[in-house]
Amino acid sequence: MAFWTTVIALVLIMAFGFVRLQRCRHEVISVKTERGWKATGDRRVAVIDDSLPKSLPL
User: Fold this and answer.
1) For the stretch 22-31, what's the b/e string if a residue is b when 16 or more beta carbons lie within 10 angstroms of its beta carbon?
2) CB 16 within 8 A of CB 26
3) What is the DSSP string of 1-58?
4) Handedness of CA 25, 50, 57, 10 (dihedral sign)
5) Using CA of residue 47, residue 53, residue 57, residue 58, what is the dihedral sign?
6) Residue 42 confidence class, pLDDT cut points 50, 70, 90
7) Beta partners for 45?
8) Residue 58 and residue 54: Cα distance in Å, rounded?
9) What is the pLDDT of residues 1-31, one digit of tens each?
10) How far apart are CA 37 and CA 35, in angstroms?
11) Cystine design at 32: which of 5, 8, 37, 42 (Cβ 3.0–4.6 Å)?
12) Which of 22, 13, 23 is nearest to 5 (CA)?
């Protein structure tokens, strides 16, 4: 009984953390948009050492 209670509690904590992370991310993006921030390219692309853009792993 205690094992399953712990498992369920951990799953709920992880789900709550994920939802909170996504909510904060959405708020940050909306604030940046309001202030005029614009992405210059794909969100999954980074420029390393001024070379060609390389895709980041997911």
Assistant:
1) eeeeeeeeee
2) no
3) -HHHHHHHHHHHHHHHHHHHHHHHHHHHHHHHHHTT---SS-TTEE--TTSS-EEPP-
4) negative
5) positive
6) low
7) 55
8) 12
9) 999 999 999 999 999 999 999 999 888 888 8
10) 6
11) 37
12) 13
Q: How far from 32 is each of 1, 13, 26, 37, CA to CA, in Å?
A: 47, 29, 10, 5
Q: Which of 11, 15, 34, 12 is nearest to 23 (CA)?
A: 15
| Token reading at 37 | 């921030």
- Written as six digits, the tokens of 49 are 């050492």
Work out the angle at residue 23's Cα, subtended by the Cα atoms of residues 7 and 16, and round it to the nearest 5 degrees.
Answer: 10
Question: What's the pLDDT band for 49 if we cut at 50, 70, 90?
Answer: low
